[in-house]
Amino acid sequence: MTSDPAPGLPVPKLVALVVDDEPQMLYVVTFALETQGFECLTAPDAETAWEMASTRDLDLVVLDVMLPGGSGVDLCRRLRGTGSQVPIILLTAMRDEPDRIAGLEAGADDYVTKPFSPRELALRARAVTRRSGSGPDAITNGPLRVSTATGRVSWSGRNIPLPDTEARLLATMARRCDAVVTWQELLNEVWGTSDDSGGREMVRTTVYRLRRHLEAHDVPADVVVAVRGRGYRMPPLDRD
C-alpha cells in the first residue's frame, strides 16, 4: 500500500500521458483514468508526446498505434531506447494484430483493442502500474518509487536494481520520509532483529553499499543522510 503522507499534505496522484489525435478518444481515455485517480496529460501526436515524456516524470503512457508524425509502436520503441520503464498501454484496432505484436515486441506492457470499455482500460492501467511498482502498493518520494509488493526500485521511471537488503532499507527510509530513523529501528524493520550486537556497523555498511549502488545509476547518494549520533534521514525529494 502507499505510504501515508505527512499530515496536511495531499496524496500524490499517478501521472498518465494519453496520446491520440482524436479529441473524443482523448476525452474517453482521460475520463476513464481519472476515475481511478490518475492525473492526465494529453498529446495529439508522437513528437509532442516524446517531448512531454522527456521532461515529465510519468507513471503511465497510453498511446494509439496510429499517430501523426510517427506510429505509437515507434514511440514505444523510442521510449524504451532511453531506458525508461514507464508502463505503456497501446490502443489498437481489432484487425491490427501485426501492430499489437510489434507493440509488445517494442516494449509495450499491454494493449487494448478498439472499441473498448473505459472501465476495462482503467483497470488495466491500474494493473500495469501495480506490476511496475507505480501503483497503490508503492512508496513514493519525488522521483523515487519503491514497490512494497515486489521490492522493485525506480528513479524517474528508470529501474534501479538493488540487493534485497538495500532495497528494504531504502523502502524503510522512504516510508519514514523526513523523520530520523535510528539504527536500532532500522535493525528491527530491515533485518527483523532487536539484537544490537554489531548492529550499528551492519547498518552503516549497508547504507554505504546502498549509496554506491545509487550513485552507479546516477541517483544522488544524499537521498539517505546520516544524522550524527541518532541515525539516518531521507529528505523530501522534488518530483522533477
UniProtKB/TrEMBL annotation:
<keyword id="KW-0238">DNA-binding</keyword>
<dbReference type="Pfam" id="PF00072">
    <property type="entry name" value="Response_reg"/>
</dbReference>
<dbReference type="InterPro" id="IPR016032">
    <property type="entry name" value="Sig_transdc_resp-reg_C-effctor"/>
</dbReference>
<feature type="domain" description="Response regulatory">
    <location>
        <begin position="15"/>
        <end position="129"/>
    </location>
</feature>
<dbReference type="Pfam" id="PF00486">
    <property type="entry name" value="Trans_reg_C"/>
</dbReference>
<dbReference type="GO" id="GO:0003677">
    <property type="term" value="F:DNA binding"/>
</dbReference>
<keyword id="KW-0804">Transcription</keyword>
<dbReference type="InterPro" id="IPR036388">
    <property type="entry name" value="WH-like_DNA-bd_sf"/>
</dbReference>
<dbReference type="InterPro" id="IPR039420">
    <property type="entry name" value="WalR-like"/>
</dbReference>
<keyword id="KW-0902">Two-component regulatory system</keyword>
<dbReference type="InterPro" id="IPR001789">
    <property type="entry name" value="Sig_transdc_resp-reg_receiver"/>
</dbReference>
<feature type="domain" description="OmpR/PhoB-type">
    <location>
        <begin position="136"/>
        <end position="236"/>
    </location>
</feature>
<dbReference type="InterPro" id="IPR011006">
    <property type="entry name" value="CheY-like_superfamily"/>
</dbReference>
<keyword id="KW-0597">Phosphoprotein</keyword>
<feature type="DNA-binding region" description="OmpR/PhoB-type">
    <location>
        <begin position="136"/>
        <end position="236"/>
    </location>
</feature>
<dbReference type="InterPro" id="IPR001867">
    <property type="entry name" value="OmpR/PhoB-type_DNA-bd"/>
</dbReference>
<protein>
    <submittedName>
        <fullName>DNA-binding response regulator</fullName>
    </submittedName>
</protein>
<keyword id="KW-0805">Transcription regulation</keyword>
<feature type="modified residue" description="4-aspartylphosphate">
    <location>
        <position position="64"/>
    </location>
</feature>
